[in-house]
Give the backbone structure.
Amino acid sequence: MLILSFESSCDETSTAVLKFDDNGFVAVLSNIVASQIEIHARYGGVVPEIASRAHAEAISKITYEALEVANVTIDDIDAIAVTAEPGLIGALLVGVNFAKSLAYSQKKPLIPVNHMRGHIAANYISNPGLKPPYIAMIASGGHTSIVRVDDYRDMTVIGSTRDDAIGEAFDKVARVMGMPYPGGAALDKLAYQGKPVIKFPSAAIKDDTLDFSFSGIKTAVLNYLNIEKQKENEINEADVAASFTEAVVSSVLVKLKEAFARNKQIKKLVLAGGVAANSHLRDALNQFCMKNKLELYMPEKCYCGDNAAMIGSAAYFEYKAGNFADTSLNANAVSEI
Ligand code: KG4
Ligand code: ZN
């Protein structure tokens, strides 16, 4: 079967065609991503109104492109999937309305997909043998959650951030160091040239939850930079990047360790979201899993950031469950999972 999927929750417009065989094995026939990063970089962050307009401009063009690259026509498609929540409301509505119209006019089933479930499902593309149960760590620009996945569609958030998302912290720290938006990947590279010699506070909240707070660590970095500037000391930005990264990664490890201690029957860890591309986090989780005899699954870097292939991957399980929407489908800016 073939699923045509759409993603427009933030600053990437994306359309993909995925092919599933009878055993559920998936092949990505196309995954076109029209990035708006250059547009938003001028403003140092995503401007919602501009994002919606850019989605509206890109979506039909990349739909033709996704069908052409996949070498299929709209008649070959069995179902249409779209990110319906969570995200920027205006941005989501572009994808939802486009997918609704297409599904209605072409008489195809319409499948609403939760964006975070999409990030998790990116792992089924990159790791065909992956099966629940597992614990997923979602680390993106908008979300930071630890999720217990008991079955393909049965999942519970067991920890989350109480303020900033992990990727947001990366981007804000990068921004004050003069890197263009989104600076997460640049900070990742810079951290290799420095040493974690500066002590920044942990983002793992010291209580019995699995929750994080990334605003404190971000503020601590900003204060450090301001104080050093006032003292007219030379700032070693690579050391700041390495120290910030070390603080973030060790915070994630603290709560993941606790998550596995509370769910001893689960032996698999799945990483998801844009920050899953962070090589320091990937290395640290690799070591953590080896030490604790856990299997580690991560998406290939091309499926870490927002893309429609991950939405098609999640939609497959909704299709099997018969979870379809009609033309009353709406978008939700906020939703858990
Ligand atoms: O999942 P995503 O594309 O969008 C959301 O759903 O939010 O994640 C984007 C985030 C941005 O904050 C970006 O800076 C971050 O992922 N990111 C990274 C890296 N690559 C992307 N953060 C740290 N290290 C990276 N290598
Ligand atoms: Zn995302």
In short: The mean pLDDT is 97. The two ends are 26 Å apart (CA to CA).
